[in-house]
Amino acid sequence: MQYLKYIGLGLIVILGPGFALAQNNIANLTHIQVDLKTETGPMKPIWAWFGHDEPNYTYMRDGKKLLAELAALSPVPVHVRTHNLLTTGDGLADLKWGSTNIYTEDAQGNPVYNYRIVDSIFDTYMKLGIKPLAQLSFMPQALSTHPEPYRLHWHPGLPDKDFGIGWAYPPKDYKKWGDLVYHWVKHCVERYGKKEVESWYWEVWNEPDISYWRGTLPEYCKLYDYAANGLKRALPTAKIGGADVTGGGMKFLNAFLKHCLRDTNYVTGKIGSPLDMVSFHAKGSPKVVNGIVVMNGSRQLHNIEDNFKVIGNFPELKNIPIILGESDPEGCAACGMATSPENAYRNGTMYSSYTAATVAREYELADEYQKNLVGSVNWSFEFENQPWFAGYRDLATNGVDKPVLNVFRMFGMMKGNKVKAESDRMYPLKTVMDSGFRSVKTDIGVLAAKDQHSATVMIWNYHDEDKQGAGEPVKISISGVPAQKVTVTEYRVDKEHSNSYEVWKKMGSPQNPALAQINELEKAGQLQAMTKPGKVNVVNGKVSLNSLLPRQGVSLIKLDW
Fold this sequence. Notes:
Blueprint: E1 4-5, E2 11-13, E3 30-42, E4 49-52, H1 61-73, E5 79-82, E6 103-105, E7 111-113, H2 116-128, E8 131-136, H3 174-192, H4 194-198, E9 201-204, H5 217-234, E10 239-245, H6 250-262, E11 277-283, E12 287-289, E13 292-294, H7 297-312, E14 321-328, H8 349-368, E15 372-378, E16 396-397, E17 400-401, H9 403-413, E18 417-423, H10 429-435, E19 443-450, E20 454-462, E21 469-479, E22 485-493, H11 500-506, H12 515-524, E23 528-529, E24 534-537, E25 543-551, E26 554-560
C-alpha cells in the first residue's frame, strides 16, 4: 500500500489499483467535492424496504437466508412487503403466487380462521427484527364474489390482463371482510405484542387501478373503509394507508385520497377514513435497441414526480409518510430473460449501478417536492429452486448474492445526515427527468453522508446503455473532516469485485455447481473492499482521494475516525 503526501491541499491517498490515477486520463478527470460541514437533511434509509409476490418463500431455506442478510446489512429494521397474505390455497409457492388459507367458511357460512401459514411468515420476520408492510390482500375464495376460477397459474410470457380472476374480486360480504382484518390484527397483537404491531404499516390491496382489482373505484374505497375499521377496532394506534396504485394511477390515487379526507365513510357514515401513509409504485421501462439493453430511469422518476404532485393537491397531507410500494427498473420480477430479453440487465452490474443512480434521484425528488418519503420498496427477493442466474429480478440466486445486493450493503453503511456533495459529471435532475442517462458521457454521480465518527461517499459510473467500460479517473475532495487522522476503505461493485455472476460465468455457467464452486460463488457474492483499510493524516480538515471507476461500477468510500 502506498501513501502520497501533498502539503497544503491535504492528502492524495493511493489505495491499490482502484485508487491509482491513470496519467493518460487526466484530461477526463471527474472532480467530486464533499463538504462534511454542510448537512442537507437526515440520511433516511428509504432503501431498506423490499418486497415480492410469493409470501411462502419467506420461510423456505434460501428465503430465510436472504432475509437474514437483509436484516444484517441495515442499521434500522428492514421492512418487507409481500402479496397474497390472505389468499386461499395450500401454501405452496409458485411464480407470482402464494397463499396462507387464513380464511375459509364452514358449511353454514361461518368464518373459520387459520393463522398457521401466515404466522410462519411473520414469525420469520420477528426472529430477524424485520417489520412487515402488511398487505391486506388478496380476496379469500370463500369471500369472493367470483370464486371460480380462483387460482392463478402464471408463467413468463402470460400478460398481466390474465391476472384478474377469483382472488381479485370484491367481497360478497364487506362486514365479513372487515371482521377478517379485525381478527387477524387482534391475533397479531396477542402473538407479537401491542408495541410491535404499532410499529408496522398496513396497506389495503395492490395496484387496484389495474387488473389486480376487478371491482370499481368506489368498491375499492368501500373495501378500504371496512379494512381500516377492522384494523382500528383491533388496535386503534395501528397505521394504515394505500392505495399502492401503479405509476400511472394518478387519477385513482387522487380519488382515493379525496375519499379518505372528504367523503362519507362506508362504515361509519361520517366524513373521512383513517389514512396514516400514502403509497404508490414507480417503474422504469428497459428496451433492447440494436441488440443492447437500454434502461429508462426517467419513466420511473416521472412516476414518482407525478404522484408527489397528486399528494401535493391535499394540504392536509403535507407531512404524511410516503412509501414507494414498488420502485424498480420495470414491472415484472418473475419474467426471465428467455421471454423478456430486455431483462438481461439483472444479473450483472447494470442493475447495481442503476439502483445507485436512481435511489440518489429519489432523495433529490423528495427534497425538491418537500415530501416525507420514508420507504422505497425494491421489488426483488429470490426465486426458490429455480435455475442459476435465470434472469429474474432477484437479490440472490440459489442462496448466492447477486451484485445488486452489495449496493444495498453500501447503503447500509450510510448513516447520520446527508451532506453537500457535487460532481462535475453528475447529470442534473432535470436532464435525467427529461431524457434519462443517455448523453455521450456517463453519469458519474455522488451521494454522501456523515455520522458522528464516520463519513461515507457513494460514487457510481452509470449509463442507460448496458455496456462495460474501462475505469475513468475520479478525484474526490472531502472537506470538513473533524479529525487529525482517518481510516479510509473503498468498497466496490464492478466486473471484478462483489460479483458472483462473473465468477459463475468463468466457471462455465454450471447449473449444477459442485460444493466447492458454491462456496466460491457465495464468497464472490459478498461486498469486497478494494484493499485493506489505510490510515491517513488529515491536513486542514481535508482529504483527497483518487479512484478509477469503470462504467457500471459503484464505489463506497468510508472514512472512520
